[in-house]
């Protein structure tokens, strides 16, 4: 189904949206290992990080929404200034992703490929990610989506497992 993860001696890792959110929000139990994974990969020439174009819009939306929810939880009202600040931070996070990862497009070919994964997983968003992986030759998806990992065994790795892959190459 997928190609060799070490093609051209470069380990190619597609980081799922949930990994990027763990990285930026620093709220999950996975944050420390995700932070280490991304920092380690960014400093190595034998590792390439990828993100899908759909993840970029999801990252921006989720981060801005989370920051606005934090404002509400603090008992304040989300006004235009706080909403604008949340959007600006979200844009900054997307810029940060672009400094660390190569963007895989989701276009017509990737959508058609997603249909081939429907019998396997039947989740359009995840199947689009799998379609982008297949089209690009990326062989490892780093995700904490347990349902996807169960349906796409062998290509889905947790951040902890991906970090072990990096350590094994170093």
Q: Which descriptors would you attach to this protein?
A:
five-stranded parallel β-sheet; about 60% helix; Rossmann fold; disordered N terminus; about 170 residues; alpha/beta; 8 helices; globular
Layout of secondary structure:
Blueprint lengths: L10 E5 L1 H9 L5 H12 L4 E6 H21 L6 H21 L1 E3 L3 H10 L6 H13 L3 E3 L3 H6 L4 E2 L1 H11 L1
Parallel strand pairs: 1-2, 1-4, 2-3, 4-5
Summed up:
The protein is of the alpha/beta class and 170 residues long. The protein has 8 helices and 5 strands, in the order E-H-H-E-H-H-E-H-H-E-H-E-H.
How would you sum up this structure, described in words?
- There is one protein chain.
- The protein is an alpha/beta fold.
- It has one domain: 5'-nuclease (Rossmann fold).
- It is 61% helix and 11% strand.
- It contains eight helices and five strands; from the N terminus they run E-H-H-E-H-H-E-H-H-E-H-E-H.
- The protein has a five-stranded parallel β-sheet with strand order 3-2-1-4-5.
- Helix 7 links the parallel strand 4 and strand 5.
- It is globular.
Low-confidence stretches: 1-6
N- and C-termini, Cα separation = 27 Å
User: How many discrete structural domains?
Assistant: 1
Instruction: State Rg.
Output: 17 Å
Widest β-sheet, arrangement of strands? 3-2-1-4-5
Query: What is the succession of H and E elements?
Result: EHHEHHEHHEHEH
CATH topology: Rossmann fold
CATH class value: Alpha Beta
Structural class, by secondary structure, is alpha/beta
Q: How many strands appear in the DSSP assignment? A: 5
């Amino acid at each position: 189904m997928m190609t060799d993860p070490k093609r051209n001696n470069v380990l190619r890792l597609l980081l799922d949206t949930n990994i990027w959110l763990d990285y930026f929000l620093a709220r999950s139990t996975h944050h420390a290992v995700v932070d280490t994974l991304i920092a380690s990969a960014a400093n190595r020439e034998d590792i390439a990080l990828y993100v899908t174009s759909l993840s970029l819009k999801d990252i921006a939306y989720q981060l801005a929404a989370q920051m606005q929810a934090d404002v509400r939880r603090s008992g304040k009202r989300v006004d235009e200034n706080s909403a604008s600040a949340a959007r600006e931070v979200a844009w900054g996070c997307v810029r940060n992703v672009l400094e660390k990862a190569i963007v895989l497009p989701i276009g017509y070919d990737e959508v058609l490929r997603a249909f081939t994964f429907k019998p396997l997983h039947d989740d359009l968003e995840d199947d689009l990610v799998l379609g982008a992986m297949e089209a690009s030759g990326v062989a490892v998806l780093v995700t904490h989506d347990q349902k996807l990992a169960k349906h796409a065994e062998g290509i889905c790795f947790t951040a902890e497992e991906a970090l072990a892959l990096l350590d094994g190459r170093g």
